[in-house]
Structures are given as C-alpha cells and as structure tokens.
Structures
1.
Amino acid sequence: MSFDSTAQLADFVRVVLPYLDPDDWSKELHELTPRAEQQLFILYAMLLIGYHSDPSVEGLSRDLCFKFGFVASRGLEGEKVLPCLYQTLISKYSFKEFWTAFQSNTLIALMDANGLKEERKRIQYLDAFLEMKPGDWCPSVWHLRLFMHTADVDPPRHITIDYRFFNCNTVEEKFALEDVYEGLLNSPEVDPMELHAACIKGKLHDFACWYRPNLEQRFEWLMKNTYSLSMEN
C-alpha cells in the first residue's frame, strides 16, 4: 500500500506515538523540527502500518524516499530489502536513537552493529548514500531514479540537462526516453553509477545500446550530448 492522502494521518500518529519521547506526544506532525524529523515520523508510520513510501506523492513521501536511500540500489533490490532493515532497527531503538543515527550519518554503523551488514550490502550503494552529509555532491542518477517513480511529465532542470530531456520536442519523446532509463535502472544487470559515468562522458546512447541493442535509431539523437560537462552534476 502507499500513502496517498492525509486521511491516514490519525493512524500514523497512533502507531508512532509510543516510539516518541514524552515531550513530543502532544505535538502535531508539522511541529516536529527540523523537517527531516517529520520525514522520519512518516517513515516509521509507513513501515509500522505496512504502507510503502510512494514517490509519486508530492511532499514528505517523495522526500523520504530519497533521503532514506530507497533510490540507492541496483534494480529494485532496495525497495525489497530496505524496509526490512529499517523495521529491524525500529524494533530495537527509540525514535530519538534512530533520528540521532540518521542525523549523524551512522545508520550504516547501526545496521552493522545489529548483524545486518550482509543484508544491507545487497543494496549496492546504500552505505555511500546514507553517509553523504548535507552539501556533499550527490550523483544525479539518484535524482533520475526518483523521477522515474513519479507521475511528473517534466523532470527537474538538472535531470533535464544531464540526461538529455532537453533534446525532446514532444511529450511522447519525453515518455519514450523516460521508458529507456526506467528499463535500465530497474534491471539488476545495470549499475546506476555506470549509467551516471556514461552521462558524464556523453556516452548515454552507447551505454543504452549495450543493454538494449535493438534500441530505436531516434534515441541516438535524443541522448546526444550537445554540451560539455566540466564537472559531475
């Protein structure tokens, strides 16, 4: 199930309340600060109730999909494994302890301390992703993966530039290009960081053809690099 409205908020509060510090019991969701603490509250609720984070929903749900590493995997492995990892931590630690580990970029250490190292290593880039600090460079391929799971027609500007959506002249071309990237990123054979490397080198079409040799000829133009990247985005 996915969270798609505010109708479930009362249920969310009910299930998460026992995990909060007593000082926070009377607070509304918007009163939890900073915003990342609100995101953790929603993550707790979704996992405890049985919902999953749905990036097609604007706001908190989409943000927590990204911040808690659901995008940082090869294929769909992260979406299958990560909820179980977080549920294990929730069963062992208070909301405050979980929050402190997230804020200090030590969730990976917490997983390893609880015998979850081999399981979390199934998510290829989870450690690098969760250990990023605010302001650190983040490969745009993770933003591309998030966009793939939304219902948006137009990607954010940096995705439009990096992954050549600016070459598309019609909505159909945008959807077609999106389908190619979605197929690549959902494949367990494709390393997302190799896709990002191809982006940096201006070799997106060559990369896509390696995995999809029968790709339509038009994608050579749609994926064409018409500018030089002087640094990784």
2.
Amino acid sequence: MNLPQLAQEQAADTRGAHYPKDSADRPLFEGQLVALDEDKCRAMYLILRAMGARRVVEAGTSYGVSLIWLLAAVLDNLSTYGPLPSRLPTLAFGTENEPAKAARALEHVSEAFDGALPAPLRLLEGDILQTLPAAAATGDIPDRSIDALLLDIWAPLALPTLQILLPKLRQGAVVFVDNSTSSSGRYAELLGFLREPMNGFQTTTLPHSGGFELCVYVGTEA
C-alpha cells in the first residue's frame, strides 16, 4: 500500500508534507493515501519487534497503512513471546477524526489480515483529545502500560496528545514522530518538549526522508 501513496504524493507535489498547513491547501490532501513512508514503517516495525512491544498507540491513522505495520509487530510479538506477564491485553489503538478515513482504514486492515480485523485492534473515531482520555478512563490504558506511540498527526494536536498519554508510557517506551526535520517548525513545541531532559526523554533523529524522530522515555527522577 505504500506504493500508491508514493505515486499520489509525487503527482500532487505533496511529498513529505502529510498535513495541510491551512484550509487553502486542504483540497490537495482530500482522498490521498497519506501514510508513513515504507522505510519508516519498516524501521518502526523492527524497533517494536526488538522491544517485544504488545501495547501501542497511533495518533493519526488516516487510511491505516502504518496501523497495519503496528498491528503486524504486535501480533508477531504476541506469537513469539505470548501474553504479557501483567495479563494486560495486547492492544493496538488507532485514532482517526474523519469517519470516511476511519472506514477505509478498517477496510485496508481487513484486507491485510486475510479479511478479518485482528483482535488487538481498537480504532478510536472522533476528536483524539476526547477519545483517548475516554479510552483511558475505561481501564484499557492503565498507567505505565504503553510500549510505543506513533505521532503522525496535525502538529497542533501532537503535544496535547503526548501529554494525555505521558502517564501511560512505561519506562523504556518509544515515541516516533514523523517529519521531525521537514516539519520542525510546525512541531517546534512538541520537539522542544521531547528534547528537554527534565521531561524524561532521550531522542535522536533517524536519517529518513523528512526526518523520523525516535524518542525513548527513560522516566524522570522522583
């Protein structure tokens, strides 16, 4: 599915610009298969496999391409290592504000997994600043239970989303930020937070197109 995405981005000259800057260029993105680049997806998958990650959250699902990679990592880890010792369920949360994109994402996930939606999948539809706290309130996301967070979302929502999930990240959890170089201005507040040592993260920029920030939550001193 990454190949159609690449062709669309090149045709519309939106390569590396996954979200509209304002309402004027929003039509360029309507109907596009906006997704994390394949090399970034592969890197993310391998990191999650190395971690044994079985509880992940994606902020900004769009049409579900990167969600498929997240689910693949989670399911492969479940097959290799079995359930978590904590008995917490294996989960992969997706989040999407637009109903049409959410529906297409579910279709794409089903196609990728032999016509069925994997049991760990939870797709939250609606405003992420409302759906994530609501999910946390149900007990599905206890504190210090999330292995990884992918932030591939409209820049103004990125830091508020991280702050919602910060208490839920376990020590050693990873946060991925797409386009951390090409969109560094728009993500300035988020990147400033992640790169401030007192907030508990250590970060590096992986050398993929547009930049791909890898942040490890090492925790803060009590």
3.
Amino acid sequence: MGPEEDLPTLICRKDHLNILRYVRAHQLRDPNLVVTSGKILLESKSLGDAERLASLEQICIAACDIGDLDLAESCLDSIVNPSESNNKSLVVTKESARYRKLLGLCLEAAGNYESAAKVYDILLQDNPSNAYAAKRKYCILAAQPGKETDAMKALDEYLSKHPGDLAAWNQMAEVCMSVSDFKGAAYCYEELVLGCPLDSNIHTKLGEAYCTAGGVENAKLARKHLAQAVQLDQNNLRAWYGLVAAAEGYLEEVEKLSKNKREAEDEGVEVAKELIKFGGEKLAGVYQGSKLAAVVRSLLTETSHSL
C-alpha cells in the first residue's frame, strides 16, 4: 500500500489486505467493511503469520461492533488455535493479555458483563496501570442502567491514575453535564483546555458550563472562554450565540447584587453590553438574506431593548 493510495481506490481494486491495513493505520471505524474484506482475505489463506494475527484481531473487534458474535468467537478461536504457524513467537495463548482483551470485548458484546469484568480484573492484577482494562470496566458500568454512580466512580478512579487522558476528561465532562453537575463539567473542560488550548469547541463547551452554573464570577469566566472561542474560530456560531447569552446572563446576575456590589461591576456591565451589540451584529450579518434573518433580528432586537 503506497502512501498516495486512498480507501476508495483500494476498495475499487478489491485489495482486501491493504483495506484492512488502511483502516488500522488511520484508526477508522467501519466494521462492516472490515468484516466483508476480512472474510474474503481469510479464505485466501495466503497471509503470513503476523498479518493473519493482526487481521483476525481486527475482524474480531469489528464483528463485536456489529453484533456478529459467531464470527467474533470464530476469530477468537482461530487466534489461539492456528491451523499452522511457522513462527512460534506469534502463537497467542489464553493466558496472554492480547487474548484476554479480545475475550473481554466478546463477553461485553454478548451482554455478559460480569464475566467481562472478571477478565479485566485479571488484566489489572497482572498490570495495575493497564489503562485499557480500567477504561473497559468503566464502559461496562456505563452500559448498565442504574449503575451511573458506580460508572462515575470508576471513571474518576481511572482519571486519578491517568490524568493525561484527554478523551477520559471529555467523557467525564459529558457525564457531569448529564447529571447537572455544571461546576464538575467545567473542571473537566478546564483540563481539556490545558491539553488543547487552541480548540475553539472546547472553549465553547467550557463557557457554556460556566454560564449554566450561574453566578457573577462564573458568568465572567463563561464570557472569557466564549470570547476566546470566537477568536480562535470566527465561524463558530455556537460560540457567538453563547457569547451573547453569557453577556446577558452576566447582566442578570449583576441585577441580583446589592447596590455597592453592582457599582463595583460597572466596568463589566459596559463590556457585557458592548459584547451583546458586537455579537448581535455578527449573527445578523451571518443570516443576512436567509429565511432565518427575520427571526434572528427579532431576537437580537428584544435583547438590545433590554439593555
């Protein structure tokens, strides 16, 4: 497979070996394609030991993904019971971590969560820092209704040991948002910002979390991150709407303060009013000439009248 070749070309050429290689190399999730190409490839019986093992693992995972448990079990059996192998170092035993990872996935796909959890427990006993097994244990709990609290605890424990996993922080943020823990979600998005400081979407989500949490200080933080989001991506309409909403929310929070505290926020109030006007002009310009222009203009007019 050359570096210039793309997936459509490989599919047209029916190059099943390189189709699987391409999917692995680019970390694509297309289980139907993997299963279709994988079946044909295995029937050819022309693979070397290393390529055959990699293909069997890939097909096994894809089969679990589409619920073809018979195929997944067949691949799993072929991995530990190869018909012939010239390289003994590539023979996988049932006690190996490689086999147990696939076994756990097959058990999960079959809905046998208890047995799958036991498999991952064994992996963690052998290697307490096994991030894969720890994440799968969280997934098992998250997949079962009524175990949301246990799932959050498992994910929290995982993050305490693997604080650099940005995907896990993003998952924890979504979990916190689902249970209305907006301050917890903001904390998680702050961790994501440290890892991806130039990602406009993360700043947007962080601003929304602060805005929803309420309070003057949170409204200021919301305004800050949403302003950063539009600076990083001028076409991020969600951030523009959020910026206007955060500025409005700030003004509402200031109104709840005592007279002395309101006076201390005079400068912030002026900044918020200017942001609402600036954001409103931007949004009005975006929708100019479209069917939604009148609706957007009406909403922005109501906001400007309240200033």
